[in-house]
Amino acid sequence: MKILVCISHVPDTTSKINFVNGDSEFDTNGVQYVINPNDEFGLTRAIWFQEQQGATVTVINVGGPETEPTLRKALAIGANEAIRINANPTDGFFVAQQLAEVIKTGGYDVVIAGKESLDYNGGMVPGMMAGILGYNFVNSCVGLTIDGTNATASREIDGGKEIVSTTLPVIIGSQKGLVEEKDLRIPNMRGIMTARTKVLTILEPVAANVNTKSVQFEKPAPKSAVQLVSADNLDELINLLHNEAKVI
Residue 16 needs a FRET pair 20 to 30 A away by CA distance; which of 25, 49, 152, 188 works? Predict the structure, then answer.
């Protein structure tokens, strides 16, 4: 079984976010990057299939040379090889087109991508890949088992979970629950040393459409100061909740 895990290179959630050039570009200075958490849940599940069912695991990323440390971490966690598509990930559709081109020729049985990345939260790449390729697709996946050419997946829906069965090849939109945080792998020294000798293939992008662009970013407005209301002035409290907070 061949598994491809799509890896996004995203800012650590503790990073301070700023924008430059008239708030049209993200300021990368001083920002620490990590594997997108939703992708890491998928990678950890893929490593389980590697250990328990003999799967081979390849990780892939669309990005420049600055993303290679993130791919090397994925290799240190246990992936067999890595692919970097040498292109700026301008929008979700462009990324989906680049990844789909590799999937077409790679013969992968399972493709795992986080249901969304934690930088832009587009939530579009896994579904777009499935649409381009005509593959079966399960999003918001919190459970996955594979038996031969059949897969059984559990996904979150409003008010509960849905169990679905499908055939391979399949694209999975992973999230927390596919594995738990306690199950995530921390690279050990042996893994880090081994990762240095594993294959990291660099591919040039194929011609593809770029249909959107970021015009401007805006930070959330700062929270207003706390407004205290006297305990004996309920009418004023109700007025504020109704007219300002608009919660009643």
Answer: 188
Strand partners for 6: 60, 113
Which region holds residue 121: left if phi is over 0, alpha if psi is between -120 and 50, else beta? left
CA separation, residue 70 to residues 12, 75, 83 (Å): 12, 9, 12
Work out the number of other CB atoms within 10 angstroms of the CB of residue 123: 16
pLDDT tens for each residue of the chain, 248 residues long: 999 999 999 999 888 888 898 888 888 888 899 999 999 999 999 999 999 999 999 999 999 999 999 999 999 999 999 999 999 998 999 999 999 999 999 999 999 999 999 888 888 999 999 999 999 999 999 999 999 999 999 999 988 999 999 999 999 999 999 999 999 999 999 999 999 999 999 999 999 988 888 888 888 888 878 888 888 888 888 888 888 888 88
25 Cβ neighbours under 8 A, 6+ residues apart: 19, 214
Upstream peptide bond of 222 is cis (omega within 30 degrees of 0): no
- Predicted TM-score (pTM) of the model is 0.86
